[in-house]
Amino acid sequence: MPEIYAEFALILIIAAIAGALGLKLKQPLIITYIVVGILVGPAAFGFVSAHSQIELLAQIGITVLLFLVGLKLDLKQVRQLGPVALATGLGQLTFTIIIGFALILLLGKPAVEALYVAVALTFSSTIIIIKLLSDKRELDSLHGRIAVGFLIVQDLAVVIAMMVMSALGMEHNTTSDAMLVGLLMLKILTAAVCMYALIKWVLPQVIGAMARSQELLLVFAMALGTGLAAVGEWAGFSKEAGAFLAGFALASSGYRDAINARLSGIKDFLLLFFFIHLGSQLDFTILGDELFSSAILSAFVLIGNPLIVLAIMGYMGYRKRTGFMAGLTVAQISEFSIIFIAMGISMGHVSQSALGLTTLVGLITIALSTYMILYSQKLYSVLSPLLSPFERHNPYRELAVEQDSGNEIRPDVIVFGLGRYGTRLAHGLKHAGLKVVGVDFDPQTAQANRRHGIPVHYGDGADEEFIETLPLHPETWVISTLPDLEANMNLLRILRKHYPQEQVAIVARDEHYRHLLEQLGATKVFFPINDAVDYTIESMTQLIHAKACAPQTQ
Predict the structure, then answer these.
(1) Does residue 541 carry a pLDDT above 80?
(2) Please, what are the domains in the chain?
(3) What global pTM score does this model have?
C-alpha cells in the first residue's frame, strides 16, 4: 500500500509539471495527460504497477463526465436547439460517417473496424470547445451558441451509440437478430418509463432536502451518477449510459449549475487518470503502423468537418464568417471517441489497432484545432477570399437572430444573498421597474423568491465556475448582500478576473472594510446600518423640531 501511495504521488507530480508546460504551449491538458501516461507506462519508464486502482479512478472519471453531459441537456434547451443546431449536427455526423467509412475502407481496414472508427471521428470534444470559447469570451456569441447546440446533438448521438453497441455486445451471442431488436426496444422503453417516474415524482421530493447543504448535494449527485451507472451496466447497457441518464434526470432542476460547478473540478481530476491509463496502455508498435492512416484521417477531420458545417450553415442563411467560426469547433475528435473505441475492444468488435489509430488522430486534431480556434480571427482573415462560395447574399437567419438578440432580456441587477435585506432589496428594485436576478445557496429561499417573481440561481457566490454560468453583461450591476467579508472579497476577485468592466456594489456591515473592498475593485460600498441610523436621526430631529415649533395650546 505505501508503494502504491508513493506511485500515485509521483504520477500526480509528473502530471502537474507536464500540465504546466502544456498550458504554456497553449495545449489542452488531455494531450498532456496522455503523454504523461506514455511516460509512466511500459513504452517509456514503466514504473506504473497500480493498474487496477488507476483503472477504477478512470472509470469513475468517465462516469462523472457523462453525468455532466447529461446535466447540460435541460429539456427546455433540447426543445430550443433550433433547426440550425439539429441540421448542422446531423449533417456533420452523416457526412463524417459516410465519407470517413469509405476512406477507412480504402486504407485497408475491415468493415466493422471502419464503421467504429468512422463513428468515432464524428464526435467533437464538447469539454475542450466550451473551455476554449469561454476563455475567448465567445460562448455567448452567435457562432458560440450554434456550436454548443450541435455539440449537444453530438453528445446525444454518442450516448445513443454507446447504448446500442453495449446492448448488442451483451446479447449478440445468445439471441437472434429479431429477438435482439425486441429486447433492445423493451430495455429502452423500460428505461424511459423509469426515468420519467424518477424525474416527475422522486427527485423533486429528494433533491430539495439534499440541497440544504452544498456538500450533501455534491454527495447526492455523485451517488445518483454512480448508482445509475451501476444499474445501467447491470441492465445490459453501460455505465456511461446510466451516468448520462442520471445527469439528465437533474438537468431540469434549479440546482444543476451548482452541481456542475462542484463536480467540474472532481471530473477534471478523475479524467486525469483515464488519460494516464490510456497513455500507459498504448502499444507503440501498433501506433507506428498507423502513422500514414492517422495523417490522412486527421486531414479529413481538420478540413472536411469544418467545410460541411460551413456549407450547411451557408445554405440555411448564415454568413460565411459565422459558419467558419462554428465549423472550427468540430475540427477535432474527442475523449468520447477514444472511450467509444475502448468499448468496442472490450466487446471484441475491433482490435487494438483501432484504438491506436483513433488515439493518434485525437492527439493530432486536438493539438492543431486548439491553435485554429485560438487564432480563428487571423485564420479567417487569411482564408476569407477562398470562402466566398459559402457566402449568402441574404443571410436571413442571421439577420433575424441579430434582430431578436437586440430584444434579449438582460438583468439590470444581480443580487447575491437573499436574506431579509437582500430579498427586500431585490423586490424593491423589481418594483422600481428594473430586471432583477437573485443568487442564493438556500433552496427554500430560492423557491420562495421564485414564487414571488424573482428568478433565482441556486449556487455559491464564491464558486468561480458557477459565477461563469450567470447572465453577466457589462451594463449589469452586481450587488452583494453577503454578510461575510471573505465571501465578498472572493466574489470581487472572481468578478474582476473574468468581468473587469462589471459594476459591483457591496453591502457592508462595518465601515472598517470600505478601503479593503474598494482596493479589490468595488464600485460602491453601502452601509445600511449607518444609513438607517442617519435616517432615524434625521426623522427624530424633524419630529422634535416640529413639536418645539408648534404653537402651545392652553
Answers:
(1) yes
(2) 52-390 (1.20.1530.20), 413-545 (3.40.50.720)
(3) 0.72
